[in-house]
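Please, structure for the following, as tokens.
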Amino acid sequence: MALSVSFRAKLEPGGPSFMPTQTIVVPADVLAALGGKSAKRVVVGINGHSLRLGLLPLEGGGRYLMVNKDACRAVGIALGQWLDVTIAPDPAPDHVDLPDELAEALAAWPEAEAAFQRYSGAHRRAMARLVAEAKQAETRARRAVTLTERLARGLHPFRGD
């Protein structure tokens, strides 16, 4: 990670009231070293794992990282635990890790792939998450096909047009 900064923080409950999750508050000096409020996406290192996350605004100023339960399990961390965190600006902020089912569906349908690429990084990440979060392979495949079909037909990926 280029221009990485290390700090120690506690994994705390938090996040938007409609979506309680685990958070890591980024100290003001660390945020300043990352470029201040212009830093939006970061690569975070915890326990030897690398996570791509967004810096989200705190009420009253500052920023925090939202870490979902699956990421906490994968990294081996729990609420209340103190963490040694390394953070750096994401060199590819619009990068999206595609689940295999979605990558395969988009590769098979060029019109859908082109439509997918026209969306912002945040929208593409949301589409990838919709497919990836399904527990069963059949559900992931069905979601990938439905999403790809909607994109190819020029429909919004999430709305019931």
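The helical segments are 28-33, 69-75, 100-108, 110-118, 121-132, 137-152. The mean pLDDT is 89.
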